[in-house]
């Protein structure tokens, strides 16, 4: 079996700095990429920036610089943040790159040669921030139905894509592959939209120049969404390294925000069908973040700067909060009080305390050396049985991007281990039944090691510290999930000694 996995984030507009929404999608893709790697997959994880379009051109003009200068200035704000957040992307696409231009123009030509692109004229209401036209019905009050900003009335010559021809094929695909769009609520939205009938789509613009020219007609630039979506092909070598492209395509999962669902689940598969390319396996649309109950807004001044949150609380703590606080797919609310509560509760009190007491007991009662199990008894069998069940729960939930429930399974293991220690009380056994102590601490060591492994995709740096505290010499990112999810003899460990708290409590 070719165990390869290709996951993407959207490419992010360069007209503004990254915020919590950008961090959320990118960290989610990183969680899955790290998980798949320890499961033995050859993973390609792609992210990048969207540099073309009228929105970028306007932002550059407002600053008195060229769009290319704006792009060059903004790219590091994203790449630096991904470094701060410990994001392990394989590739990074810039749409101004020569390879990408080649892919977009090739795709345009291929679809036009099939007869699915024609020249016409478009008149309608246009939203510059969303780069989208709307019908009279959609634009009842002259404002964008998606973002609420004022619309502009535009009339221009345009190339159109015959999207109306792909309604039936797309509907069949949705009916045959129910999890093509996830979660279910988003699948229902897409199915309903497609059933309502698809209209041909304007895919070129003449009102600005910052874009990839239409092949053979330089008066037109290619519509930013036709250009942007093609990045998923560019990033894995379409037209430049076809061996790599064929290794990774079709994409296993496009992770996106719910606001760009239609582009990914309607436009993109229609373009791919026309070009004769396989469709991606899944499109997963997550929810939005509010801030203390309010919508994020520059005018309100409540936009969350992820780098600032990391500086205050730590990268792993921020990553953990994003996926522990709210089910992935639903909307969530960010507040400093909520992140402090997660750090003090789940991380310091529950998991961190478990790590510290486990290492301290192994140091005290076994001179820092975990051997094999000796005298069985007590609640040993129940512990092993329940941990196995929770690992199975975790694997099942991770397979469908249910990060919240997967983390729930990890904290069931944490609670189980804390109860086991309290029930078995190694400090008492050391006096009353010393033959049980090696077995109890063998079970505890294995349980904590497994819990750290399951938390690794979410908190790569802190779980590496936990493994070190447990005396494990090999790097956690090189672990094999299949091997490490089982109880085994500790083997050649570094001596386990008393450890300082890995997640210090935050004073509230």
Which keywords apply here?
508 residues; alpha/beta; Isoleucyl-tRNA Synthetase, Domain 1; 48% helix
Structure in a nutshell:
By secondary structure, the chain is of the alpha/beta class. The protein contains 19 helices and 16 strands. It has a domain at 336-484: Isoleucyl-tRNA Synthetase, Domain 1 (Orthogonal Bundle).
Description of the structure:
This protein has 508 residues and is an alpha/beta fold. Helices cover 48% and strands 15% of the residues. The strands form 4 sheets. The protein has a 6-stranded parallel β-sheet, with helices on both faces. A 4-stranded antiparallel β-sheet has the order 5-4-6-8, with helices on one face. The longest helix has 30 residues, at 336-365. The two termini are 51 Å apart.
């Amino acid at each position: 079996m070719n165990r390869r996995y290709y996951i993407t984030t959207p490419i992010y507009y360069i007209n503004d700095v990254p915020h919590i929404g950008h961090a959320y999608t990118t960290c989610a893709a990183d969680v899955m990429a790290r998980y798949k790697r320890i499961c033995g997959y050859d993973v390609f994880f792609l992210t990048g920036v969207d540099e073309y379009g009228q929105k970028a051109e306007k932002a550059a003009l407002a600053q008195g610089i060229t769009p290319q200068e704006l792009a060059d200035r903004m790219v590091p704000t994203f790449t630096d943040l991904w470094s701060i957040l410990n994001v392990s992307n394989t590739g990074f696409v810039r749409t101004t790159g020569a390879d990408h231009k080649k892919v977009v123009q090739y795709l345009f030509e291929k679809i036009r040669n099939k007869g699915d692109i024609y020249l016409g004229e478009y008149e309608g209401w246009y939203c510059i921030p969303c780069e989208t036209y709307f019908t009279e019905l959609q634009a009842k009050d002259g404002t964008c139905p998606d973002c609420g900003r004022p619309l502009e009335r535009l009339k221009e010559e345009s190339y159109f894509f015959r999207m109306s021809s792909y309604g039936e094929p797309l509907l069949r695909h949705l009916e045959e592959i129910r999890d093509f769009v996830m979660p279910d609520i988003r699948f229902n939205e897409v199915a309903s939209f497609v059933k309502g009938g698809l209209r041909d789509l304007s895919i070129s613009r003449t009102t600005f120049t910052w874009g990839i020219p239409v092949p053979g007609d330089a008066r037109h630039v290619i519509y930013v969404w036709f250009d942007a979506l093609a990045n998923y092909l560019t990033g894995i070598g379409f037209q430049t390294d076809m061996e790599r492209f064929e290794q990774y395509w079709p994409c296993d999962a496009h992770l996106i925000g719910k606001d760009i669902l239609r582009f990914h689940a309607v436009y993109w598969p229609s373009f791919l069908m026309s070009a004769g390319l396989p469709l991606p396996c899944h499109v997963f649309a997550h929810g939005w973040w509010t801030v203390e109950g309010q919508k994020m807004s520059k005018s309100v001044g409540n936009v969350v700067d992820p780098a600032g949150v990391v500086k205050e609380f730590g990268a792993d703590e921020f990553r953990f909060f994003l996926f522990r606080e709210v089910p992935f797919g639903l909307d969530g609310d960010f507040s400093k009080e909520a992140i402090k509560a997660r750090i003090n509760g789940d991380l310091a009190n529950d998991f961190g305390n478990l790590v510290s007491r486990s290492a301290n007991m192994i140091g005290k009662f076994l001179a820092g050396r975990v051997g094999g199990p000796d005298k069985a008894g007590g609640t040993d069998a129940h512990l092993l049985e329940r941990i196995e069940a929770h690992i199975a729960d975790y694997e099942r939930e991770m397979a469908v991007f249910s990060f919240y429930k997967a983390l729930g399974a990890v904290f069931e293991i944490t609670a189980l281990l804390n109860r086991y220690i309290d029930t078995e009380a190694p400090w008492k056994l050391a006096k009353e039944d010393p033959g049980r102590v090696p077995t109890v601490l063998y079970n505890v060591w294995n349980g904590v090691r497994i819990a750290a492994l399951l938390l690794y995709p979410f908190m790569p740096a802190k779980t590496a510290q936990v493994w070190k505290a447990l005396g494990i010499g090999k790097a956690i990112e090189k672990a094999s999930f299949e091997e490490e999810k089982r109880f085994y003899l500790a083997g050649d460990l570094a001596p386990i000694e008393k450890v300082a708290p890995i997640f210090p409590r935050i004073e509230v």
